[in-house]
Amino acid sequence: MTSDEVKKRNLEPCVVKTIQRNREIQDIILDGETWQKLSDEGKRVWLLYLNGKDKEIKPNVLDYISQGETENYHFRSLVQTRKKWYFMEQREIPAIFFTILTRGNPRFILNKADVRPLNMFLLIYPNTAIIQADCIEILWVLLNCTFSISRLHSVSRTYGGNTLKVEPRELDNLPVINPLSLPKEYRQKIKSMIDKFYYHRKTNILIEEASKLVDSFLDSKIVTEHSFRTPVQLQLLDTQIKYD
User: What is the pTM of this model?
Assistant: First the structure.
């Protein structure tokens, strides 16, 4: 829904922030200011988020649900698999999300706006070790570096017009530099690049500098001579990896 629709129907307690289409965010970061701009432009940035825990659904919410039924939304194939067709899948807010279908601009988006994206995106939840090491933003940059982006074609399907589509289980196999395998000085350099990015907001500069750093790391003797306790490559969605 748009913000005007939410206010008109008094649905504020029943909605969460979302983003509907990948073309609405062309950058690799979505922050609160950008999300608010989408809201002000009348984009559909709110999602009805019912989970069945409420003892009763208020009349204004029922009216909105009835409108959907009038338009036959409850007969659509996806919603018929749910206990109640209007219940959303319960998901935590992802730290990063990825554009499933793109034409020349695949990107991993840092979720600074705390949205729950719709199914035009894949949601990425870094494992506990990366969270505890405060490496989420480093992982985000590494995902957008040439090392990973250039390998998307090996785990995806390509269509006409330079269109690329990546399914969830396909993305599992994308090679990613493990931020925990980087020596401390490399991580500090990437953090410095991120700090500068928040100031200049030039994505191309951040990615170009970080990609060069990754290449220098992979070409260095550090990789071949150092005995890592963690792998250089990380399986993206593997939640079973544990580190000491």
Answer: 0.88
